[in-house]
Amino acid sequence: MSIPGIHTASVSAPGKINVSLQVGPLRKDGYHSVASVYLAVSLLEDVRATAGQSGITVAVEGGGPLRIPVDGIPLGPDNLVARAAAELAHRTGRRDPAVDLLITKRVPVAGGMGGGSADAAAALMACNSLWGTGLSHTELASIASGLGADVPFALAGGAAVGLGVGDQLTPLDAEASLHWVLVASSIGLSTPGVYRRLDELRAGRNIPEPAAADPRVLEAVRSGNAAALAGVIHNDLQAAALSLAPQLAPVLDRGRELGALAGIVSGSGPTLAFLAGGAAAAADLESALRAEGHNALAVHGPARGAEVTAPADIT
């Protein structure tokens, strides 16, 4: 049952960059093992949960600094936010999960930054507050792991190593911020499609299972040493993403020419992430890229994980 007088709860959750991503061969279960270093960044999704009349409804609004379009996002029961709310209701024995969920999109859709996972994490926490179910962060993380590999990290935020399919998380203590400039693309890349292309490019090669993240990346992230990180960031999916969207390659080159220490495809793409030497350098790079017509935004990380931005409205 709802707590009397509680009508809404709002939660934010961060998008992420895969600072390093090693991908193993295709497994018999259809997945790939990975060794990834996640960094949550200051580009946040918001989910507002409002007590509804019947069932779980999902709506979405876009915009934000990257002017994210939201046309075509499926809003039915298969939407990850709806699934998150339904699973929380199921786990807590709630028979009347009447809730209206409004997503405010700022992270690129199908952009390789885990925006949908951030929405799911935010929805779990918002419904937990709205319904007064009282689950702990650990209990919410258990539900999150069943929704997708990136959802537990969006709950936790910060920086972490992800093993297995990315869901076996080990937090990293990051001492200082790293500054980045994101360039969003109007191209859509399917994550499964990018993985399939990677398998095609690797056909006939003996690919080892990734056992651990690169220790050089871990040290650079822990210390916030951008110069050291620039030489070791890596994404096994980058070649596949560029093969499917070759128009991204000149943008990567141009970002470096304009002063980025390094550039990388974020996750499965097509969002690009450029590492800058500091906040001022990131601001300058954002301005230069925008002047050339690119949809660019300076961000920093590590950012905090999912958190309540507006406490449950009590009247």
UniProtKB/TrEMBL annotation:
Domain GHMP kinase C-terminal: 218-294
Molecular function per GO: 4-(cytidine 5'-diphospho)-2-C-methyl-D-erythritol kinase activity; ATP binding
Family, per entry: Belongs to the GHMP kinase family. IspE subfamily.
Gene3D superfamilies per record: 3.30.230.10, GHMP kinase, C-terminal domain (3.30.70.890)
Xref: HAMAP family: IspE
SUPFAM superfamilies the record matches: GHMP Kinase, C-terminal domain, Ribosomal protein S5 domain 2-like
List of catalytic residues: 16, 150
Name of the protein in question: 4-diphosphocytidyl-2-C-methyl-D-erythritol kinase
Protein's GO biological process: isopentenyl diphosphate biosynthetic process, methylerythritol 4-phosphate pathway; terpenoid biosynthetic process
Gene: ispE
EC identifiers of the protein: 2.7.1.148
Entry-linked Pfam families: GHMP_kinases_C, GHMP_kinases_N
First and last residue of the signal peptide: none
Organism annotation: Arthrobacter caoxuetaonis
Biological function: Catalyzes the phosphorylation of the position 2 hydroxy group of 4-diphosphocytidyl-2C-methyl-D-erythritol.
